[in-house]
């Protein structure tokens, strides 16, 4: 009986292996997968990006992995990523699901939706964020206000301030930094990003059916998402009671008005989409925090940035976005921060929307696509010595800003981050406002700081903790 069972299981495994091998005939080449687990043993879940780079040296810029039972086509290098996301943008504009999020809710919202739903939500989001002045305060005014309100603990400011800007857009009002509800919200958002970047989350996302019932931190993600959804839902209810269609106060009001105009209570304008859209924008704020905070020997560059601030802005007015065009070194520093930290190494997973012929391969509709942003941001032909932090990567021989097509920290193409312009505004205004009033000094010898090793490198590349002294100018 035992022998028959073993033979039966072996036959099933071999059948599974044969089926996957036969399906791979039109997919790009890649390492041979094992039955059931695929290529998981050939991937370092603590640093997926590095594993993809190593595999690309063997199989080229386009190759196939099996993480579990499903194939993933990996695009490595600027040419392959640009060709897919820009040149074939429509075909590669699908979004593959992320099990750890899918477990909590349906794939609503701008991140996870596809097709017509995604296009309408994205169009609405871009229009609302671009035109959010609405006769009152512009988004720049909100960022300037938040920069002036920021306290001196760098971890605290860079965590709370961008999130508070977003809250003022979504909920109308900013929060006091001691507000317990606001602090809890920021804590749960940060906690989810940390968990999603852990090795455990990478395992879960590839074997959800096996791990769904096991204990682990992925259950905390679900609870935190539920908390965020319920928090926003309460705000939505408050807005519904006081809504004036002729005087929208914030993002929620605009969404409720749009919902009433199309007279629907389901996709793409239902409350579920509003909840997920609002939470997505809050998560986007955390990207600004992480972008600012990882490079902890930033103090080495302060003197040159402060000199530019003094020449262009002075000490007696707040920085504004018009100053940016006259501050090429400061701008180059911010570009280099985002390039160097490589915040989202493998991007959010895409999927092809139809059968696609790509570089003589046929990728079936629905196949997951991973695009290595690390391979673009750290390309050594475009950025000499990419492992070194150097603002000169974005300056020409005359000291003017040199833009690069390889600069893709917010992805590229149809699924490019909808909050890019806001995040870049926050980075510029927060940095210049802080350095206008403070010198920054590390509490430890800069040689002792390790800026190259993140504490986690999965969904996001997370910075180690650090401390800075803020010394008034």
């Amino acid at each position: 009986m035992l022998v028959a069972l073993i033979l039966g299981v072996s036959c099933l495994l071999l059948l599974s292996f044969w089926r996957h091998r036969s399906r791979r005939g039109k997919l790009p080449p890649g390492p041979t997968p094992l039955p059931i687990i695929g290529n998981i043993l050939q991937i370092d879940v603590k640093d997926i990006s590095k594993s993809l780079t190593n595999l690309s040296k063997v199989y080229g810029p386009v190759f196939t992995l099996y993480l579990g039972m499903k194939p993933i086509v990996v695009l490595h290098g600027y040419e392959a990523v640009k060709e897919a996301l820009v040149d074939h943008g429509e075909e590669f504009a699908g979004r593959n699901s992320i099990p750890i999020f899918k477990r909590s809710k349906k794939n609503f919202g701008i991140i996870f939706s596809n097709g017509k739903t995604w296009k309408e939500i994205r169009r609405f989001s871009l229009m609302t964020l671009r035109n959010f002045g609405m006769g009152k305060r512009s988004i720049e005014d909100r960022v300037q206000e938040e920069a002036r309100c920021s306290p001196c603990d760098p971890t605290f400011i860079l965590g709370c301030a961008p999130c508070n800007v977003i809250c003022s857009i979504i909920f109308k009002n900013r929060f006091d930094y001691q507000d317990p509800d606001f602090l809890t919200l920021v804590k749960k958002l940060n906690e989810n990003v940390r968990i999603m970047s852990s090795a455990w989350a990478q395992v879960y996302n590839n074997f959800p059916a096996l791990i769904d019932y096991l204990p682990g931190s992925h259950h905390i993600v679900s609870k935190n998402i539920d908390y965020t959804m319920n928090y926003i839902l309460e705000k939505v209810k408050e807005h519904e009671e006081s809504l004036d269609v002729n005087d929208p106060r914030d993002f929620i009001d605009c969404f409720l008005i749009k919902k009433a105009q199309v007279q629907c209570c389901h996709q793409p304008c239902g409350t579920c989409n509003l909840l997920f859209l609002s939470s997505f924008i809050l998560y986007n704020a955390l990207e600004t925090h992480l972008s600012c905070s990882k490079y902890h020997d930033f103090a080495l560059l302060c003197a040159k940035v402060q000199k530019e601030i003094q020449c262009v802005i002075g000490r007696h007015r707040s920085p504004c976005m018009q100053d940016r065009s006259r501050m090429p070194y400061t701008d180059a520093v911010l570009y280099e921060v985002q390039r160097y930290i490589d915040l989202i190494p493998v991007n959010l997973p895409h999927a092809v929307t139809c059968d696609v012929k790509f570089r003589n391969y046929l990728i079936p509709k629905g196949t997951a696509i991973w695009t290595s942003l690390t391979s673009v941001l750290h390309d050594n032909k475009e950025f000499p010595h990419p492992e070194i932090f150097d603002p000169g990567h974005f300056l020409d021989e005359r000291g003017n800003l040199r833009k690069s097509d390889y600069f893709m920290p917010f992805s590229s193409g149809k699924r490019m981050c909808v909050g890019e312009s806001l995040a870049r505004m926050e980075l510029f205004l927060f940095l210049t406002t802080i350095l206008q009033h403070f010198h920054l000094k590390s509490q430890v010898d800069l040689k002792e700081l390790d800026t190259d090793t993140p504490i986690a490198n999965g969904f996001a590349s997370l910075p180690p903790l650090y401390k800075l002294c803020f010394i008034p100018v």
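Residues 296 and 466 are 7 Å apart (CA to CA). The longest helix spans residues 218-242.
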